[in-house]
Specification:
The complex is a heterodimer of chains A (800) and B (90). Chain A is an alpha/beta fold and 800 residues long. In chain A, 29% of the residues lie in helices and 18% in strands. In chain A, strand 1 and strand 2 form a beta hairpin. Chain B has 2 helices and 4 strands. Chain B has a 4-stranded antiparallel β-sheet, with helices on one face. Chain B is globular. Classes of the chains: A alpha/beta (800), B alpha+beta (90).
Chain lengths: 800, 90
């Protein structure tokens, strides 16, 4: 048999096996050996590099190169299936323009330098003033990478200016969870999608953004189960095509919709009185708004909701009063199981914390919580937004495991685990993302106190809002220095002073934490190109350079190196890249990090358990027989080991320390910028199926690039006709912050209603974030990329 | 032999249109069909190059009666170039 025929036969076996398995909704089947073309290809597991779903892939390696990708049939998340990005993930390694050498800007040009010189440059910048050195990362940091960066900054430099780009995508989800439950991250899991009777998409488009999860819902319908999908959206998407109810709402009015549902539940008495009496309390906004809010009683809660009648909500939101009643009817039924999903639509919102808290509140008020299929679940956009940004706590105010820097006990515990002197951790929160970049772009004499930012695993010159204000000014201020670690040239490396070539995905060991609290592990499978090196190594090597210069912060209490690592009783020089893999640095860091994890009952198992599994969902608790058991439904007595025996539900991190979750009332208020005569359209930005975030990886994959080569502006047909614009015509899109030329797409993949526009943000040649608004949620500090006022002008015309 | 992209896929269909869809799919030269299981047709997509594969998947997805296309595996071990050119703008 020819090799090609063999591969085809193996492929058919794999597809047939997957179809058989899915037909009976069976999990965890061992992969068929015959489904793999055996011989010279070595297969290993890894989570996908892209979104927060956390699919596992099998990676086939031959001759030091990844040559094949298969969905991992043992993975509960994706059950052997992959989306268009997932099955191309390996190709992201092999773009021709990988960065392979450190580059330093000299006389305006980036020129190659040695790693030794690069580390000296970093050390020089720290020594200049450690308090003005900032670190900007992302939810694409692996858990050990984020942990190393966290320790480097807070335990080494005594500086809290570290924040992830998760601030731009998940921060409102975090503050929503904290406001309601007193602890971050979802109680539910993906299993809820297998049990829900109704799935509500709150401004969410999983058919494109989390396609494998959406396929899981469609799969149930294929098997004859009834699953009602309600799409609450501001434009028609691929998800809308599968929805039973498409409820188009005016941007920002989701708060009114949530309040309208709660109003009817209270007015009709169809809320879950027993659940609320036993497990909940009521809370309203403070002025100014904060995370704690203020307690209110049920009567006050009812009084505040009173104005949100179905008719009033219809007037505000555009969703019909009957549809609001239909939603309230559903939530009023105890025998229906409802799962809510959301992602950036609710998070990137100037009232992001409030709308997150309100959707949790709808579920709590109606008792749709704590049973399989009944869950309010936020999805993440990045592979380790939960595992790294939120759990490791690479945020300006946070310490690992749910601790915060202003809390003296939390600092003391962290100093004890890190074995650093008392008082090493600075009690003052550092600058959050927007403020960090504002300060970097502000001259020192005007209060700009950040002189250097080290960026890893993200592309802020492309992804930050209003780049003209937050990024560009820094390039003209003497003494400002930008360090960027990345795998490809990006909009940010283009303006950087020092560029460091990084290893990508399976070119290094790693661990991610996905949207459903699942911690995942993988091993290095191939070597990075040229002199590209692990981000984690870069941090440790920079720390070592400072240690060698006598920088006190890089010593622990005993005078040892902050990242001291031993093997068989001897220190391993992991700062020397040739020796970095003499030990498993990830394992060493993770074993130290997991000591932090029990404080908020986010218990992690030993590293070795993750090697065996396709991820485990925390809390992972040791059993009497020595095995480790994951938890699926958090706060639910039947599954969560930390719920008191005999309780069905217990919110054991309640903000009020009484086991109660908080049901919030937050009013609908106008967004900071609304369409007017000069800028008559709503502009929304987002992602597309083919490209992941700023496209630095997916635009290097020819198949994905050819499928979606450039950004566009989606426009309603009637608006286009009124303005005399043809499909495909290039127009000028303008906001108060900038102008961008884009082709118009009418009735394309998405379809905005009249008065609305949509532009994807992946295209680095068309930076939509030069136009977006930097206004942010006052609590989460997350900017609103989903709505600002815009206008469209035909090129060569006066405008419209 | 030139570069190939061989993908194992699952085509989820409206079962009432199974026979009609199978005929449409079979008419494509790049697709080998397995037996329908439930509402899914396992299939192997064999295209001249990876870009063609992507295009073919989209065409299949757009067929009336097809509700979803999942990919189980893709093999590009015989492809001569994995990424022939850098991204535009880089």
């Amino acid at each position: 048999m020819e090799r090609r025929d063999f591969i085809k036969a193996s492929a058919m076996t794999a597809a047939t096996a997957a179809a058989s398995r899915l037909a009976v909704a069976q999990d965890g089947v061992e992969p068929s050996v015959s489904a793999r073309h055996a011989g010279d290809v070595r297969w290993q597991k890894a989570p996908c590099r892209f979104c927060g779903t956390g699919c596992h892939v099998q990676v086939g390696v031959k001759g030091g190169k990844v040559v094949a990708i298969a969905g991992d049939q043992q993975a509960e998340v994706n059950r052997g299936l992959l989306c268009v990005k997932g099955y191309h993930v390996a190709l992201a390694l092999y773009g021709k323009d990988r960065l392979t050498r450190p580059l330093l800007r000299k006389n305006g040009k980036l020129v190659p330098i040695s790693w030794n010189e690069a580390l000296d440059v970093i050390a020089d910048r720290v020594m200049l003033d450690p308090k003005g050195f900032a670190f900007y990362g992302s939810g694409q940091w692996t858990i050990p990478e984020g942990y190393a960066a966290q320790k480097f900054m807070k335990g080494g430099l005594s500086c809290n200016h570290i924040d992830p780009n998760a601030r731009l995508c998940m921060a409102s989800a975090v503050t929503g969870f904290l406001a309601v439950y007193g602890v971050d991250e979802p109680a539910g899991v993906y299993d809820d999608l297998d049990r829900a009777d109704v799935v509500i998409l709150w401004g969410n488009n999983p058919a494109e953004m989390h396609p494998v999860l959406f396929s899981r819902i469609i799969d149930r319908r294929v098997r004859g189960e009834k699953v009602t999908i309600i799409d609450l959206c501001t434009r028609h998407t691929r998800s809308s095509q599968h929805a039973d109810h498409v409820l188009l709402f005016k941007p920002h009015t989701d708060l009114a919709i949530a309040n309208g549902i709660m109003h009817l539940l209270v007015e009709r008495g169809t809320f879950d009185r027993e659940f609320v009496q036993r497990h909940c309390a009521f809370r309203g906004d403070n002025e100014p708004m904060d995370l704690a809010g203020k307690p209110i009683d049920f009567a006050e809660f009812k009084r505040r909701l009173a104005e949100y009648t179905p008719e009033k909500v219809q007037e505000i939101s555009g969703v019909s009063a009957d549809a609001i009643r239909m939603m309230a009817d559903l939530f009023g039924k105890r025998d229906v199981r409802i799962t809510s999903l959301w992602c950036m639509g609710m998070n990137q919102h100037t009232r992001g914390t409030a709308i997150n808290a309100l959707v949790h509140s709808v579920h709590l008020l109606s008792g749709h919580f704590g049973r399989p299929g009944d869950a309010p679940t936020s999805l993440t956009g990045q592979p380790s937004a939960c595992g790294t940004a939120r759990e490791v706590g690479t945020l300006a105010h946070a310490l690992p495991g749910g601790r915060v820097v202003p809390n003296a006990a939390h600092r003391a515990e962290s100093e004890q685990i890190w074995n650093v002197p008392e008082g090493r951790i600075n009690p003052k929160p550092g600058h959050h993302t927007v403020l960090m970049w504002e300060k970097f772009s502000t001259p020192p004499e005007q209060g700009g106190d950040i002189h250097t930012i080290w960026v890893q695993v993200t592309n802020p010159a492309h992804s930050l809002p209003n780049r003209h204000a937050l990024v560009d000014p820094s390039r003209k201020i003497p003494g400002r220095f930008l360090i960027v670690s990345d795998v490809y040239p990006t909009a940010t490396t283009e303006i950087a002073d020092l560029v460091l070539p990084s290893a990508l995905w399976v070119e290094k060991n790693g661990m991610f934490g996905n949207s459903e609290r699942r911690t995942q592990q993988w091993y290095r499978m191939v070597k990075p190109p040229g002199e590209a090196r692990d981000d984690c190594w870069q941090i440790i090597a920079a720390a070592r350079r400072l240690f060698e210069r006598g920088f006190e912060g890089m010593k622990d209490k005993d005078g040892r190196f902050l990242f001291h690592t031993e093997k068989a009783g001897k220190e391993v020089p992991i700062w020397d890249f040739a020796r970095y893999y003499d030990v498993n640095v990830d394992e060493h860091l993770f074993e130290e990090y997991r000591k932090f994890s029990t404080y908020k009952h986010k218990d992690l198992a030993p590293y070795s358990e993750y090697v065996k599994a396709r991820g485990l969902r925390w809390p992972v608790v040791k059993q009497p027989d020595g095995s480790w058991k994951e938890t699926r439904w958090r706060f639910a007595g039947f599954d969560d080991p930390y719920v008191k025996k005999g309780e069905n539900v217990e919110f054991y991190h309640s903000p009020t320390n009484d086991g109660r979750a908080q049901i919030w009332f937050s009013p609908y208020v106008l967004p900071p910028e609304v369409p007017d005569d000069k800028f008559p359209f709503w502009l929304c930005t987002g992602r597309v199926l083919e490209h992941w975030h700023t496209g630095t990886m997916t635009m290097r994959i020819p198949q994905l690039r050819s499928a979606m080569p450039e950004a566009y502006v989606e426009m309603n047909r009637d608006d286009a006709r009124r303005l005399g614009i043809q499909n495909g015509e290039r127009v000028a899109l303008e906001t108060r912050r900038g102008t961008l030329e884009l082709p118009v797409w009418i009735d394309g993949r998405g379809s905005p209603p009249p008065g609305s526009l949509f532009v994807p943000f992946f295209d680095e040649k068309r930076l939509i974030n030069e136009l977006t608004l930097q206004a942010h949620c006052p609590i989460s500090k997350e900017p609103d990329y989903k709505k600002c006022a815009a206008r469209v002008r035909r090129l060569g015309s006066g405008g419209a | 032999m030139g570069p190939v992209a061989i993908a194992a896929i699952l085509v989820t269909i409206d079962p009432s249109q199974d026979q009609a869809l199978r005929a449409v799919l079979r008419a494509r030269g790049d697709l080998e069909l397995g037996e329908t299981i439930g509402a899914r047709i396992p299939a192997v997509l064999d295209t001249g190059d990876a870009v063609e594969a992507e295009r073919a998947l989209r065409e299949i997805w757009d067929l009336p009666g097809v509700s979803f296309v999942d990919v189980v595996s893709v093999d590009f071990s015989e492809a001569s170039e994995l990424s022939p050119e850098p991204a535009p703008g880089s």
